[in-house]
Protein 1
Amino acid sequence: MLPEQALAAGRWVKLICGASNQDLAAIEDLCGIYTLAGVDCIDLAADGAVVAAARRGMAWALERGAPPPWLMLSLSDGADPHFRKAWFDPERCPPGCPRPCQRVCPALAIGTSAGVFEERCYGCGRCLPVCPWGLIEERDHQLAPPAVAPLLRALQPQAVEIHTRPGRATAFAERLAQVKASGLALERLAVSCGLEPATAEHDPGLGPIRPERLAEELWQRFALLRRNGFKPLWQLDGRPMSGDVGAGTARAAVLLLERILAMAPPGPIQLAGGTNGLTLALCQGLAKRSGRPRGGAAGVAFGGVARRRLQPHLLKAQRRQTRLLDDRELVEVALKDARALVTPWRTEDGGHL
Ligand code: SF4
Ligand code: SF4
């Protein structure tokens, strides 16, 4: 099934590698395994080295008969946790600190005595509040406007995603113009948005966001996409950067879908933010209430949960000093774990849950 057909059938699955994740070895392995597991799209940081690593992983899977997924590059129209990295100066850490920052980091981006390994940090933010001395800062990691068009032309993605927030229509239009200037004929222009307001700096009068306001903002984005000849794909970000795998985080995106579906502009809606292995069952519950297949969801994106499933195998590969994709035993177990997440969405009845 081609990606467009998967969207139409409500069976689209996207792997999110992380808009600021630059861990090249892990990205190559993740992309190889999840391409072979059947994802329709891989969402990556807009970075040449990251795309090259992803393409190496995808090529490995294509050699084994997998169809090529779309390559989607993520941009943002303003401050966004997906586009930040943590930073601290390890020289300032008091001796004897029990290093809670290292313990909470899901990406193993903080070493036993070093600071943050920048390429591994994907900005989840868990380390930020745990330092008893407040030494950890967040640093923005965005592309400068003049860099967007040439980079997209060089990297040739099939899709681009712009992370936006209510209150940032003007900034969105500017980012969109930079994408348009690349001249690329994209399959889809994805818009990622949730109920989080823009910062006061963008819209000082903005209160808490209601679904009606979000729908209004999506209609504004829709008008811009149409005017510029882009086909939309709406990514509802239920709980951005939650990194959790529980029912609570999965419910946030499905609840948002339920509240916004009747008001949303045309185009497929895909869930993200806290999505996990429970998301499909929740969509099936919504399908019963709404009478719409999969509750109206065209598909799902898996980020933290997809990475976490493969983490033990990636670590084993690291210890064996090999690429996971070159270790037959690890490929077998990693593929089984990846398929357990992807296959239920790809099958008509949702597979066995
Ligand atoms: S906890 Fe999150 S933000 Fe902090 S270093 Fe690890 S990945 Fe980066
Ligand atoms: S918790 Fe703070 S002081 Fe301790 S190692 Fe981490 S950054 Fe340094």
Protein 2
Amino acid sequence: MHDVRLSGIRKSYTSGTTVIPGLDLEIPAGSFTVLVGPSGCGKSTLLRMVAGLESVSGGQILIGGRDVTHLEPAARGIAMVFQSYALYPHMTVAENIGFPLTIARRPKAEIDAAVQKAADVLQLGHLLQRTPKALSGGQRQRVAIGRAIVRNPSVFLFDEPLSNLDASLRGQMRVELADLHRQIGATMIYVTHDQVEAMTMADQIVVLNKGHIEQAGSPMDLYRQPATPFVAGFLGAPSMNLFEGTLAREMGCETYGVRPEHVDIHADGDGEDKGVGRWPATIRHIEHLGADAIVYADVREVGTFTVRAEGELSLQVGQAVRLSPRSGHEHRFQGGRRLAA
Ligand SMILES: Nc1ncnc2c1ncn2[C@@H]1O[C@H](COP(=O)(O)OP(=O)(O)OP(=O)(O)O)[C@@H](O)[C@H]1O
Ligand SMILES: [Mg+2]
């Protein structure tokens, strides 16, 4: 396993579009690093530059201390898994997995052993003689990962590998990928626009926005202490309540934020009597999710707050309530940066 270092990496197209203006990033050896950000922010471009599939306009890429900036993809010791993982339909699972070694003209015994090992890790052993059309989406995705594993790369690159799968399969594959990472311990760089994948799988999350890094760190560090309003709004579902204007000024900042799970709702009357409840609000809509409920409450001249409440809720649409943020869970930003607590 190798670390990956990007220094001053830039990408501009001849059309004059600059996608990545200059980026520094350190990916520790053996880490599971997730690059996350909205569509078009440059995630795939960055990953493809690490893979050598896209030329760089400036800067340096080091893998395991070796400068690979201008090396061919095959010489970089990486393997990449894409969203659309074209398997060869006429080949068996075993032949598909072994394909990179077959074209490298490795001896048959070595190929068989490598395929068997990858199939064990991915629990594909019983499917080796099937063709791709007789597999589920998740099984096909595992074959594509197997094809990467047999190359024994020091760095795995994944570009939205789960986005073609349905929600329950995605959840299952998240767990399997995390297991795979624990088993083989290789460095993995994983691109997604799905913040749930980022939060659940990463050792390190790198939040990208318009080609620059907003913040990098462990999932819970970013969740607890987002450095910018962008990160605050991007990580967490439902999104953090973020307000500018009067409310923010009252709270002593330019942008004020509090997560839906950190707002308490008090039925009007009891809150006032006990001196709690900061903002009078009217319930606009309630989404019952079962285990919990998402409540939308309008605060006059401020906007709509999203509140995560317990599932068994006795509130009604139109009801007057009071909302209070939990102390220690408020976020204040000034000049686009987090204010010290
Ligand atoms: N040949 C090109 N010329 C100019 N701009 C390009 C070219 N190829 C890609 N881009 C732009 O580069 C930006 C980054 O693209 P990229 O594919 O890296 O985004 P992404 O973060 O992977 O998005 P998604 O989540 O949609 O996959 C986009 O705004 C895209 O329009
Ligand atoms: Mg992409």
